[in-house]
């Protein structure tokens, strides 16, 4: 599913060159539930941005589904983001004064065939909301929803265009432990039901325990890469 | 379940984006719209003034009688004129005859002149009646008859001619006329008032023909009065004012002419601001009575002229041809003989007697050979100049307010981009391309400017109405000018929304997502 080869990323900050990634090589197979951990500045966010096609590597190769996307032009990257990747953010990033349903519809406005027809958008958004258990919250605005519910709306939004890769950047960073676990439970369930490849960035070790593999970043390189059985989310893991 | 508004918003994502933009920062949006509103309103008012000016010149010129033909008794065509061309003529028989004979022919033969012999009768010869000259019209003595009444020199047209013309194809209205000069007397309580003026014996269809006329008070005479040869009179407004005073309604009063008493039934004046009633003009410094009454009182039987309007302005020359053929046949004129009448279209009269602004007259004259092809756009120049100042003023106001409105739109769109940087990042993350983001913010900018424009159109309509009712300017709001006004507001939105929209599109998605 994912293959990165000698991935490097440099930023210019004034006269300094910050080397955020210093040669990362790894593969992620379809259906893996990967958690990426590491301290601030370890390069895990940069890695995430490149995986999400939000950024391009300075050097190295990124193969997504067998296709080299590291040198694609902006519009092509936008297409890849729209069709193959779903994003979940720490701050939820829902549009205020917009219903949950409309938030979920958002990616469907940018499909390559042009905006999906209104009725179809509605249907697909409903199904995505149902998948995260929010059927009864369709017409709620973000400020009428709890943090956990908001994040589930965000997950529904990430799912609505049926991506094969789900990227989550600190998805539980703004949530308490109980709701964090609820959200992680949703991820585990999606992976079990749909075979989604999931990459979650976190700095909390207990969240990392939900995955099947933990990649440890430090100073722009991978220092540890462990396959393991998910120690949490047994209910979902039982289905695997 | 869904309101019409919701359904409209569901129709297209852009519509939804537009509505959201309008409701986001209501106060700022409203203030921004104000500039566009004023701009569009003035643009619309400007076009309304321009179109109004154009329309009124069209009406004025048409009303001045481009479709009007006058058949005069006698033929004063210069011999050099080719018979086919129907319009350009020199002078007018009546005018010539009103001049002192001595001035025209100082060497007129007198009684007892040795060259002509003692039996030469001193007659008032027409200057063209020089016996040494070849001519193609009846001699003055052949044309005598109604001359004594001062009604012109020839009498070849009859009421039966007028009736026959009425049946002719392409003819709209027909009015017959007998004309002269006369003095009216009015015995007012303050003493006798006199006024020397034009006298027109005419028929009741004249009012249909003279589209620039309006009755200030009273009425025109009726068919019954015409048949009874009643002594009723319609005064031109100049006569009414000179004899009765300004603001006095003379209807019902009695006035004397030729020692006869006439009852005044109405006062006519000009409805056109191109033609203003003035002392000495032929229309409003004049009195009107049924031609039958003139015939009875002066013991006349013929007509000086017959006025005809063509049903269509484009048919004037066709109608002229038909009239010529009809009258030649009725008057028994053989092929080699010249006409005993002259057909004059109204435009030539307008040029020779004034009543039109000089430049309009010049424009007509420049096209006089094929008058009906005169494009009215060519004539619009006159009024355009008249309304030019007004329109320049409005254009300046429109330009300034559209500029201010545009800057406002740029400002509010930049504000919106800054406020929603994070949203832009998110949209990019879920697949929006640069152009999608550009389109979104352009849509917002255009939505604001169009909403401002819509209010502006309403204000512009009100402004146009006020301009015409308070300033007496003719205004015309055409559907196309409303479209143009909308187009202008949309253009302002695109123009001033472009920069902020491009800025939004060029944001880096990662930075945008991190933006707080």
Strand and helix map with partners:
The complex is a heterodimer of chains A (about 240) and B (about 525).
Chain A: E1 2-13, E2 16-28, E3 33-37, H1 44-51, E4 59-64, E5 67-68, H2 74-84, E6 85-88, H3 100-105, H4 118-131, H5 147-159, E7 165-169, H6 177-194, E8 197-201, H7 205-208, E9 213-218, E10 221-227, H8 234-237
Parallel strand pairs in A: 3-8, 3-9, 6-7, 7-8
Antiparallel strand pairs in A: 1-2, 1-4, 4-5, 9-10
Chain B: H1 4-11, H2 13-24, H3 26-66, E1 68-73, H4 93-98, H5 101-104, H6 140-143, E2 157-158, H7 159-166, E3 171-188, E4 191-202, H8 206-209, E5 213-218, H9 223-227, E6 232-236, H10 237-244, E7 254-257, E8 260-270, E9 286-290, H11 291-298, E10 302-303, E11 305-310, H12 316-330, E12 341-345, H13 346-353, H14 358-366, H15 376-419, H16 421-429, H17 434-470, H18 479-505, H19 509-514
Parallel strand pairs in B: 4-9, 6-8
Antiparallel strand pairs in B: 1-11, 1-12, 2-10, 3-4, 3-7, 3-11, 5-8, 6-9, 7-8
Helix pairs in contact in B: 1-2, 2-17, 3-15, 3-17, 3-18, 13-14, 14-15, 15-17, 15-18, 17-18
Q: Could you characterize what this model shows?
A:
The complex is a heterodimer of chains A (240) and B (516). Chain A is an alpha/beta fold and 240 residues long. Chain A is 32% helix and 27% strand. In chain A, the strands form 2 sheets. Chain A has a 6-stranded mixed β-sheet with strand order 6-7-8-3-9-10, with helices on both faces. Mean pLDDT of chain A is 89; it is low at 236-240. By secondary structure, chain B is α+β, with helices and mostly antiparallel strands. Chain B is 51% helix and 16% strand. Chain B has a 6-stranded mixed β-barrel. The relative contact order of chain B is 0.18. Chains A and B meet through helix 2 of A and helix 16, helix 17 and helix 19 of B.
Condensed summary:
The complex is a heterodimer of chains A (240) and B (516). With 240 residues, chain A is α/β, with parallel strands linked by helices. Chain A is 32% helix and 27% strand.
């Amino acid at each position: 599913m994912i293959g990165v080869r000698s991935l490097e990323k440099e930023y210019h900050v004034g006269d300094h060159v910050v080397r955020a990634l210093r040669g990362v090589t790894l593969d992620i197979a379809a259906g893996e539930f990967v958690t990426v951990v590491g301290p601030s500045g370890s390069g895990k966010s940069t890695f995430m941005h490149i995986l999400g096609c939000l950024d391009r590597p300075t050097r190295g190769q990124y193969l997504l589904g067998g296709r080299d996307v590291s040198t694609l032009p902006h519009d092509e990257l936008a297409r890849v983001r729209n069709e193959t990747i779903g994003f979940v953010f720490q701050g939820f990033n829902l549009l205020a004064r917009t219903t949950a349903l409309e938030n979920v519809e958002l990616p469907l406005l940018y499909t390559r065939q042009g905006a999906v027809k209104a009725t179809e958008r509605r249907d697909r958004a409903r199904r995505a909301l149902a998948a995260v258990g929010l059927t009864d919250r369709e017409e709620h605005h973000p400020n009428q929803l709890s943090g956990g519910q908001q994040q589930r709306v965000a997950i529904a939004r990430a799912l609505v265009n049926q991506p094969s890769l789900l990227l989550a950047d600190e998805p539980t960073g703004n949530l308490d432990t109980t709701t964090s676990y609820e959200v992680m439970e949703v991820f585990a369930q999606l992976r079990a039901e749909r075979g989604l490849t999931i990459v979650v960035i976190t700095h909390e070790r207990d969240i990392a325990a939900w995955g099947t593999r933990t990649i440890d970043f430090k100073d722009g390189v991978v220092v540890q890469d462990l396959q393991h059985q998910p120690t949490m989310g047994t209910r979902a893991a039982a289905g695997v | 379940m869904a309101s019409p508004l919701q359904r409209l918003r569901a129709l297209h994502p852009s519509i939804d984006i537009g509505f959201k933009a309008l409701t986001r920062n209501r106060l700022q949006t409203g203030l921004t719209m104000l500039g566009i509103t004023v701009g569009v309103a003035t643009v619309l008012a400007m076009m309304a003034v321009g179109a109004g000016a154009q329309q009124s010149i069209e009406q004025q010129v048409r009303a001045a009688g481009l479709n009007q033909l006058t058949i005069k008794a006698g033929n004063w065509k210069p011999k050099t004129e080719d018979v086919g061309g129907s319009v350009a003529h020199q002078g007018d028989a009546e005018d010539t005859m009103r001049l002192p004979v001595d001035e025209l022919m100082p060497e007129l033969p007198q009684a007892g002149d040795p060259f002509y012999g003692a039996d030469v009768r001193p007659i008032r010869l027409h200057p063209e009646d020089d016996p040494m000259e070849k001519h193609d019209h009846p001699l003055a003595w052949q044309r005598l008859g109604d001359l004594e009444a001062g009604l012109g020199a020839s009498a070849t047209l009859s009421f039966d001619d007028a009736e026959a013309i009425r049946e002719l194809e392409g003819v709209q209205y027909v009015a017959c006329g007998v004309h002269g000069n006369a003095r009216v007397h009015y015995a007012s309580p303050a003493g006798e008032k006199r006024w020397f003026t034009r006298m027109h014996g005419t028929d009741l269809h004249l009012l249909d023909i003279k589209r620039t006329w309006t009755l200030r008070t009273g009425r025109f005479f009726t068919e019954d009065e015409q048949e009874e040869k009643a002594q009723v009179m319609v005064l031109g407004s100049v006569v009414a004012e000179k004899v009765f005073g300004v603001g006095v309604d003379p209807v019902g009063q009695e006035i004397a002419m030729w020692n006869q008493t006439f009852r005044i039934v109405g006062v006519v004046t000009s409805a056109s601001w191109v033609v203003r009633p003035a002392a000495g003009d032929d229309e409003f410094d004049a009195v009107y009575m049924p031609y039958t009454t003139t015939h009875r009182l002066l013991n006349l039987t013929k007509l000086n002229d017959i006025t005809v309007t063509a049903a269509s302005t484009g048919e004037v020359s066709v109608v002229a041809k038909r009239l010529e053929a009809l009258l030649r046949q009725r008057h028994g004129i053989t092929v080699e003989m010249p006409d005993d009448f002259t057909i004059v279209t109204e435009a030539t009269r307008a040029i020779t007697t004034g009543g039109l602004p000089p430049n309009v007259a010049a424009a007509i004259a420049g096209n006089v050979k094929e008058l009906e092809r005169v494009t009215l756009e060519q004539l619009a120049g006159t009024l355009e100049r008249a309304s030019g100042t007004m329109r320049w003023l409005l254009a300046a106001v429109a330009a300034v307010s559209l500029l201010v409105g545009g800057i406002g739109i740029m400002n509010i769109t930049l504000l919106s981009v800054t406020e929603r940087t994070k949203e832009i990042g998110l949209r990019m993350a879920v697949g929006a391309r640069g152009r999608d983001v550009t389109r979104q913010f352009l849509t917002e900018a255009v939505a604001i400017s169009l909403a401002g424009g819509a209010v502006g159109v309403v204000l512009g309509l009100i402004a146009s109405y006020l301009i015409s009712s308070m300033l007496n300017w003719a205004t015309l709001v055409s559907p196309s000018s409303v479209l143009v006004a909308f187009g202008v507001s949309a253009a302002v939105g695109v123009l001033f929304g472009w920069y902020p929209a491009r800025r939004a599109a060029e944001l880096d998605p990662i930075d945008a997502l991190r933006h707080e």
